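Sequence in, structure out. First:
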Amino acid sequence: MPEMRGQPASFSNQAIHLVRTTQQINVTLSQMADTKASILMGATFVVFTIAVGQARNGAMPWSLGVLASFAFISALCAVFAVLPSVSGPNTAKVGEGAPNKLFFGYFTHMDEAAWTDEVLAELHSDETVFRMMLHDVYQNGQVLQRKKYRYLAYAYKSFMAGLCLTVITFMIEHATALTQ
């Protein structure tokens, strides 16, 4: 609701609640993605450790090698899902948009007083506060969709593909062992 005819926009309590709830949901979704990635990393590291132990003994079957390979790929994808990308002030931008002044990657490279003044300049009306909050929600959603959940999906899909190929490889190994 932009300012109309020189009068500042006013927002209902429901609008405030909606924006806060949306921010909270995005934070929860981000935490869920991190938790899922951590669980998957733990599971894949266990599989990979067992495979390395078997390889040291010289008795690693092909099926375990397939599972270990896909577990490693899955672990890498899970790590990419939770890996922070913080290298400079430009990391506060998503795509070609304006920087997110509320993101720590933006303000940690600034003097506190300068950052405070910059943020306070945006808080002159309810509308600019809402715009700042909505910009934060939008950019967090972009990170969730473009990075966290994308890599998390790759991690789960590669692990599932590895499990399926492991079963097939195991059946072939077992059938070959029976015919010998």
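Second:
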Amino acid sequence: ILLHLLNVWLCYLLARRLFQSESAGLAAAFLFAINTVGYEAVYWIAASATLMGAAFAQTAVILT
């Protein structure tokens, strides 16, 4: 769950930077948080690499 929360926060930062709008960042993070497509990655411990990969990829995009 903590990795998912980290990805939600990174999604917020990325969307806020991309759209230059606080509300757009919040909307993107909210939609990412409640999206049920990738629920296996949140609840299945073996899929934690997916969450870590997403976190590293988002961090790399934010830092560039």
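Remark: The chain has a mean pLDDT of 88.
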